[in-house]
Design goal:
- By secondary structure, the chain is of the alpha+beta class.
- It contains 20 helices and 20 strands.
- It has helices at 4-10, 18-25, 28-33, 107-118, 164-175, 257-262, 264-287, 289-303, 306-309, 314-320, 335-340, 357-361, 367-372, 384-388, 415-427, 429-439, 468-476, 495-500, 505-522, 530-543; strands at residues 51-59, 68-73, 79-84, 90-97, 126-133, 138-147, 183-189, 195-201, 218-222, 225-228, 243-248, 323-325, 328-333, 349-353, 377-379, 393-394, 397-401, 445-448, 457-460, 487-490.
- A 6-stranded mixed sheet has the order 13-12-15-14-17-16. Strands 7-8-11-9-10 form a 5-stranded mixed sheet, sandwiched between helices. It has a 4-stranded antiparallel sheet with strand order 3-2-1-4, with helices on one face.
- Helix 19 packs across helix 20.
- The N and C termini lie far apart (103 Å).
């Protein structure tokens, strides 16, 4: 409690903090170990945000019953103080709420506030349970008391004292989630920066997972004071699905978002937290494979963003990536798995990008790879094209698109195949020139290829050029990528290509245009003039003679 003079000194003076004065009086280890809140001298005055008048009745220890005092103010800058009576030492603070602030008279609302901001305060906070008053026809404070806060910071307790059930319950409290977390990591960091982190992997993706500016889910405490529950700066954006608490003893209590963005201490916390989460994911991938695949199904596309955003951890993130492949139906192939299954003589990791898994599996670019039994990764997420611009190799093996450049399978191609390729190129040299002339500016080049076994033609991009798939993605997002004309590759073994040799220039032009349009559609692209394609195809079908096969 307070005496009259103490009330005048403390309540009557804004920004005068008794806590701060007490803290300053401590020395050495006492000051270092002190965990005190309320050092600004303005906390009491926050009551006027919701109250039109605040009364304080207080009696200091050692004073008589009639030596209590009453301090009262409406927050306008003036106050009154007078003698009062109180049976025992202590203080009563009464808030008369403003109109429209009645919600703060609700027991459930006050409990929710206390649990959010004061669960970790070591001193128990008790409230009287509501009881139904028949005369007033309303709930009023009863006589039975309950402790509202847990009166302990779970994250500050030793891990050996915390059960899995307590970890799960705390997650539900901190993440506002009804489901159990998939995994969690809890550790204390000591050294240059001292902080505690208790971080969780949810089992289900939140509705705003794709909002890269979503911040909620990471609560920041400084010296046991709750600072904010949306401290997005404490983790990189590609880990925005992580929930939990980070408690620092080094950051200032008046920390702001600007300080969070610029502070070296925060950078160290962010880097440490990222490493800790990646370590947790590595443990899941190694020891709890089913749980990791659950995580990947929910959050894999977001984790892929880390390849471009976190260069320091790019290798670790690359090992956590999972893809579908021509070797199976499930999207559970890691790059390490792929490398372990390389064919003898295979020097590259091959992949194809497409809008869907079905489109990727049916891509004509896979035909030669199926024939040779070479596995190809199927990349169908929108983020994959962006990812590939930062991930050029893995474990010393370059990543190579099956839809780019003049296909060179290196040692996977035997001497007979190389010789046949040279002969075919010479045999079809004149036809290639005629087709290129017929298509004009529609293509950048025409050539024969041995990458096809069933399809008559396909379109590819130059090895260092933007892929057709990426161009479509950019156009779909409203952007205008630089125009890059495709290369048309012809399958010299296909009857339709053989037929081109005997066509007149007009007929060749029609067939060449049809093959280009078909190859564009097979790639997943869109035609500039679909109606013209349909008319051309119908016209040629009506006039076509049976084509010899064999």
């Amino acid at each position: 409690g307070m005496s009259r003079d103490e009330a005048v000194a403390h309540l009557g003076t804004i920004a005068k903090s008794g806590t701060r004065e007490f803290f300053a009086a401590l020395t050495g280890d006492q000051q270092k170990d002190a965990q005190l809140i309320g050092q600004f001298g303005v906390g009491f005055y926050s009551s006027f945000i919701v109250a039109e008048r605040v009364s304080v009745v207080s009696r200091r220890a050692g004073l008589g019953e009639d030596e209590a005092m009453r301090w009262e103010s409406d927050g306008s800058g003036e106050y009154t103080i007078e003698a009062a009576t109180r049976e025992s030492r202590g203080t009563d603070v009464t808030l008369r709420l403003k109109a429209g602030e009645e919600e703060f008279a609700s027991g459930s609302r006050v409990r929710a506030i206390l649990r959010k901001y004061s669960d970790h305060i070591a001193t128990p906070i008790r409230m009287k349970k509501e009881a139904w008053d028949k005369d007033k026809q309303a709930y009023v404070a009863g006589t039975e008391e309950e402790t509202v806060n847990q009166a302990t910071a779970l994250w500050a307790r030793p891990k050996a004292e915390i059960t899995d059930e307590q970890y799960r319950e705390f997650y539900k409290h901190v993440a506002h989630d009804f489901t159990d977390p998939l995994a969690w990591t809890h550790n204390r960091v000591e050294g240059k920066q001292e902080y505690i982190q208790l971080l969780y992997l949810p089992s289900q993706a939140p509705f705003d997972l794709w909002d890269r500016n979503a911040r909620h889910g990471r609560k920041l405490y400084v010296r046991r004071v709750f600072i904010m529950d949306d401290a997005g700066e404490l983790l990189p954006r590609y880990l925005r699905f992580v929930r939990g608490v980070i408690a620092s003893g080094d950051l200032p209590l008046n920390v702001s978002r600007e300080i969070l963005q610029e502070s070296r201490d925060v950078s160290a916390i962010r880097e440490g937290a990222a490493r800790r989460i990646l370590g947790l994911l590595e443990d899941l991938a190694e020891n709890r494979k089913d749980d990791y695949l659950k995580f990947w199904a929910e959050f894999g596309q977001v984790l892929k963003e880390g390849i471009g955003e976190d260069a320091a951890n790019r290798e670790r993130i690359a090992k956590l990536l999972r893809f579908a492949s021509t070797g199976g139906d499930a999207a559970n192939v890691s790059l390490a798995d792929y490398v372990s299954r390389l064919k003898e003589g295979q020097k590259s990791i091959y992949y194809v990008t497409a809008d869907s898994l079905e489109a990727a599996r049916s891509s004509p670019h896979l035909e030669i790879f199926r024939k040779k039994g070479v596995e190809v990764l199927l990349m169908t997420d929108r983020v994959d094209e962006w990812l590939l611009s930062f991930l050029a190799e893995f474990d010393g093996k370059p990543l190579a698109s099956v839809a780019k450049g003049d296909l060179d399978l290196g040692e996977l191609t035997d001497a007979d195949e190389k010789k046949a390729r040279e002969q075919v190129a010479e045999e079809f040299k004149d036809l290639v020139a005629r087709v290129k002339t017929a298509l004009g500016e529609s293509v950048s080049d025409v050539r024969v290829t041995l990458r096809l076994t069933d399809s008559p033609a396909c379109v590819v991009a130059e090895r260092d050029a933007m892929s057709q798939h990426l161009q479509r993605l950019l156009k779909g997002a409203g952007q205008k990528p630089p125009e890059m004309k495709p290369i048309l590759e012809l399958n010299p073994r296909h009857p339709l290509v053989e037929r081109l040799k005997t066509e007149s220039d007009d007929g060749l032009k029609e067939w060449a245009r049809l093959l280009l349009d078909q190859a564009t559609l097979a790639e997943g692209g869109q035609l500039a003039d679909p109606a013209a394609f349909v008319k051309r195809m119908n016209r040629m079908l009506a006039a076509a003679q049976p084509v010899a096969t064999g």
